[in-house]
Predict the 3D structure of the following.
Amino acid sequence: MIGALPSHHIRDLLRKGHIKNGNEKNIQPASLDLTLGDKIYRLPYIFLPKSDQKVEDVLHEIGAEEINFNYSLEANIPYIVKLRERLHLPENIYAYANPKSSVGRIDLRVTMLADYVSRFDAAGKRGYKGDLWAIVEPKSFRVKISPGDALLQLRLFYGDSRFSQSELETFFKDWSPLYLDEKPVSVEGLKISDRDGGLIMTVDMRSDFVGWRCEGAESFLDFSKRDFYDPRQFFNRVDRPKTKRITLRRGDFYILYTRERLRVPPGFAAEIAPMDVRSGEYRSHYAGFIDPGFGYGEKGEIKGLPIVLEVRPYEDNIVLIDKQPICKVIFERVAELPDLIYGKNIGSNYSNQTGPRLSKHFKMNQHE
């Protein structure tokens, strides 16, 4: 069996104790939400454990300061939280993590660490057994988090789930997973990265309302609140200039969106990947996993949804123009059709997103 584990396989791992302290309510179509435990430390710097080190041992070595959750986390200060879930995976399964979409849209940097693993967001090789941790660092404004908050998603795999180029072309002919201007993109119209087979997506600047910009904010955001904040407390509108190009200022944070509309059929999943560094020194996304059914529905009734982009220039100001390549999407197989499909039926937050949608913490449609 090859591919990402579907929802019912994840449920089986929970019930058999291969994922300890997990909650079945946190199962998504092809991923599991990971939740914060009750231990949090302020870090002097971000680190990776060596192949012979447990994360908790490193915390003692570097003098990490144990704190509590009573106060909001300071911007540009790293913290680490032990996750509730603990893995005891079968020998044929491996796992990777990504921030949830609501995390990326508030410019909250979250990465996972595992014992003895010198990589971010990776739970070792097949059959990992051990604790999991989340490094959390607000970048634009203070954020208050609490035990039980879900900041990360774990995707589990039986084997390499990616497509070859010929398989990708067949997949497109069968499923029409990409739409542009209400029409499916043909195989001949695909723009595919030579490096990883990712589909190249472009930024949309045709509308009067292009996106949001955050220059930093004095307010703090409580992650537990929903449909609560006025966007103007944290963001400014970015309206389309006549030239259909905008200058992204170094250090600011932007919410933009793609021209192309993505459809992920129920038997497949996807992941957003960054463009090559030669395209510019910026990050185009934080959250990466896209679950089965996104922009597709249960029976193909949805004609795609745009990808919301979380963009931060690093070295210099960057000019973006309409149709400029901004990110890539990599499709992958799911081992079996999941018994959960992304959408309103399971409470998915962004199943009807259009344009530069802010996170679930903000009052919907206000000032758009």
User: Anything to note?
Assistant: Residues 56 and 115 are 8 Å apart (CA to CA).
